[in-house]
Amino acid sequence: MKPSIPHPPPPASSSPPPTSLAVRAGAGLRSALRRSAAGLRRGTVVALAAAVAAGTAAAAPASADDLPFRDPDLSVDERVADLLGRLTRDEKIAMLHQYQPAIPRLDIGAFRTGTEALHGVAWLGEATVFPQSVGLGGTWNPDLLERIGDAVGTEMRGFHAQDPAAHGLNVWAPVADPLRDPRWGRNEEGYSEDAGLTGTMAKAYTDGLSGDDDFYLKTAPTLKHFAGYNIEAKRDQISVTVPPRTLHEYVYPAFRPAIESGDATGVMAAYNLINGRPAHVSPLLDEVRSWSEREPMIVSDAYGPSNVVNTQNYYESHPQSHAAMLKAGIDSFTDQATDSSLTIDAVTSALEQGLITEADIDRAVGHSLSIRFRLGEFDPDSLNPYDDITPEAIDSPEHRKLAREAAAEQMTLLKNDGTLPLDAGEDSEVAVVGPLAETLYEDWYSGTMPYEVTPAEGIAERLGDGGSVATSEGADRVRLTTPDGRAVTASAAEDGGVLRVAEGGDSADQAVSVFEWGQGVVTLRTEANGKVVGLGEGNRLYNDQEQPNGWFVQQLFRFEEVGDGRVVLKYDGYDTWNQKYVSIGEDGALTVDADTPEQAAEFEVETLSDGTEAAAEAAAGKDAAVVVVGNMPFINARETDDREDIALPKTQRELIQAVTEANPNTVVVLESSYPQAVPWAQKNVPAMLWTSHAGQETGNALASVLFGDTNPAGRLPQTWYRSTEDLPKMSNYDIIDSGHTYQYFEGDPLYAFGHGLSYTEFEYGRPQLDRRKIDEDGSVTVRVPVTNTGERDGDEVVQLYTHQNRSRVEQPNKELRDFERVHIEAGETVTVELQIEAADLAFWDVTRQRMVVERASHDVLVGSASDDIRRETRLRVRGDRIPPRDLSEDTRAADFDRYSDGVEIVDESKVKGMSVEGSAGDWIAFDGSDLRHLKGFTAQTAREKEGETGLQIRLGSPDGRLLGTAEVPSTDGKYEYEEIETDLRRTGGKHRDVYLVFDGDLRISDFSLTKRHR
Asked: Cα–Cα 20 to 30 A to 615, which of 50, 70, 442, 733?
């Protein structure tokens, strides 16, 4: 069962489960106009609240209904200020927790932040389940995303009508983190590796969630997780280095559009540290506030506030950390589930110690109150356009139809040699095999599907009574016996029971199906009742689960060989403190309590049925074979767990090969939350198709594509690499330095970003630009005729990329600027209009700390994928010429151009500022520096280690000409800086690259090169 809180509490012995460029106004990447409704404005409410508080006692109305904060004719600022002025200090502090208590004296009900709604309403019961977010990203259809968001918002209102206190309208969705690395455990939750596509889809979804009223919100969407979050290993302890260019060019564009437009009403802070400082106390949170006229509410992730002290050790006490979080911008503390005592005690103590003022509390509470006002909580029902939504809106026929449409639109045809579409004749015989052929899986943030159409069921329904479907899961069926001849026996009861070893017995009760999911992990299903085996009461094994589930996933095992053909069974659940081996108790029960393989029970594995052979036999002789493989979303990649490898599990690879050999008319369906490395299948299988875990309508949508009722038009939102060896170090978040994503990857991908085939062909005509030159504040419309030259109607996703030909800095190989998913009937031509804003071409100039559109020519590339460019033209931009660096001015060290692997950006102080930290041999480079008339070097450095070290100033390379070495002394701590200096030898040049090379461990915050007097 899923918990009723946003994240489940961890066991005491483990770490808590943690967590610019405006988007262009073109045909695809379009920004909606910012809403004009009054909202909480920066810096106004706290002053108003103080004034109201001073006069509140003078004349109290006879009823709470008559108080000014209940007056809908007043502005939100005025209403928030009035209410803040009437709340006591303790009431306001209590409102800082996720679970805000009721205030009966003012007739105010309880309120909670945070209901999960990533691709449907989650955890509250049966609701429409749409495809995973990565699948929705694969639709490349913002209009569809907005409609889905609207449907999810409507269902959320339906749940809210059932239980207003428990089913809150502040939804924590969508995830705007770009999918930088396919190994990220939470890949399924994001939209794309491209920040622009992510920002467009996030804005569209929040637009639907928030509703279409000028003032009232259907729901209040909150973007997750700001910022630099993309790794699960020690996610609450790792610090990611995000240089200024990556921050402004890759992180901000994913989050900014939804905030800037007003569609997203909040942001959630990430679990990780960014540039040495916990995201929960980062000054970047205030940067988010500057993007919108209406200040968003900023919430913590679950247990994030406690982490700042408990696992991040950033502050010594919770009063200190909570004061820092309030000042940084956190408005709502999601911590300790429903227990608000830590939050209340910490904030109260911080206030009494003078670490914060009541104005800091008012500002935070004011942000959450502004959301409550816009949700209509304090207004007559007749004014709220969403108040009449009832529970009947949940799982409506319209939403079921939309779920099927979405599932079909995200289906992506990877390869097709003519096998697809399949023939659905009256006597058609199709084999549907594989571990995902006869099941649908939910993920952690999924809702509960009201019904399920599996791939096999969808195909059978499509074939009708005249056709036939043969199935096989491709899983080995085995019997486990002890050396003395006893067999593991399962209960046949529907709700299962304890697994035991017994002599004799019915062989049907001893059959166990083994499903391998990669990295040696297997799940076990007993055929006695068809239930999955998991850890239960008393550390015994029970066959009582429909599928792997739960925060700790207690249904995972490994077989370990111990010799003589025997194995031991290791429990490998996500409760890592409890991973032990299976033994046999005195009563014969299988129990997880052995510390070592030597103490575990040994088993002999008898194969009753070879799954691969059974699947091949089912496929042989059929008109077609459909192999459905992929991942189980609770295993080997999910929250708290990154993937080690991107290849399919070994048994699934063998299954594909065996079925393809048995039937040359084989289609592989990859049903997966992330890209898979399938080089053999790509080369040898006639047809392949990718789908995310697409919800309740997966089977119907898949069948419609396989049999040609739907012409596929999904496009990959991520690069599919050939193997893990193609991927750079996962901990390097800086895509410019690491070579992540299609923008900077130099290798040959298995399938490129934007790839996807159709059952028809499209021909591109010459693109026409309405102008060939634009200024740095200009724009250009690109019109390209696209003709459907095939015999089927279909959708084409027309993609526009640009590449800057000359620049002071490294530029992307290409970058998506606009796109349009357009329907074109067979034989018809449609002229697609795409837009390029000059502002889209800007990058972050580290020399002047601002976005710059550089004077340059740009290749304008139009095509069907990032590697399938059909037409090119050129655009000239009359932009800025970046002058040489003037290092005689104070230069922030973090504004480097390039750096060595060991360099990290760290916190200059606990409150603000960035420094650079390195060790012996590390370096940072400042390109194109004006070195005329320089004579000296000064810098601010800190060094915790005892003794001195040095900082070298070199030209041209890390081992280039040495201009001087400054001695760096030890200081009182990493936040204590001292000025160092040294004279410089003559540079002998004009514009050169300057390298600062570290002789030992040190931090540098800023520096300058002093000039000679002339």
From this structure: 442
> For the chain, what is the total number of helices (H) and then of strands (E)?
21, 49
Tell me what percent of the residues of the chain surpass a pLDDT of 70: 93
Pair (831, 860) in one structural domain: yes
Spatial strand order of the sheet with 949-955 comes to 898-899, 923-930, 991-998, 949-955, 961-968
Q: Is there a single domain that holds both residue 429 and residue 505?
A: no
**Which tens digits make up the pLDDT trace of 735-765?**
999 999 999 999 999 999 999 999 999 999 9
Can you tell me which residue has the tokens 């606009």?
818
Residues 654 and 679 in one domain: yes
Cβ(969)–Cβ(943) below 8 Å: yes
Span 798-856, pLDDT tens digits: 999 999 999 999 999 999 999 999 999 999 999 999 999 999 999 999 999 999 999 99
Distance, CA of 215 to CA of 385 (rounded, Å): 10
| Cα separation, 617 vs 624, whole angstroms | 13
Residue 469 CA to residue 432 CA, distance in Å, equals 7
Query: Is the pTM here over 0.90, yes or no?
Result: yes
Contact 533, 555 (CB under 8 A): yes
Q: At what angle do helices 611-619 and 650-662 cross, to 10 degrees?
A: 30
459: which residues sit within 8 A by CB, 6+ positions away? 430, 432, 469, 626, 699, 702, 703, 706
- CA pair distance 846, 844, nearest whole angstrom: 6
- Residue 342 lies inside a defined structural domain of this protein: yes
The position carrying tokens 């939350």 is 673
* 202 plus 313 within the same structural domain: yes
How far is the C-alpha of 927 from the C-alpha of 544, rounded, in Å? 63
Question: Phi/psi zone of residue 43: left (φ > 0), alpha (ψ -120 to 50 degrees), beta?
Answer: left
Same domain for 583 and 443 = no
Answer yes or no: do 434 and 529 share one domain: no
239: which strand partners? 273
Residue 19 lies in a domain: no
Q: Are residues 861 and 935 in the same domain?
A: no
**CATH code of residue 900:** 2.60.120.260
Mean pLDDT of 623-643: 96
Distance (Å, whole) CA 845 – CA 927:
12
Final residue belonging to a domain, choices 86, 114, 147:
86
CATH number at residue 587: 2.80.10.50
Which residue range forms the structural domain that includes residue 385?
A: 95-393
Total number of domains in the chain: 6
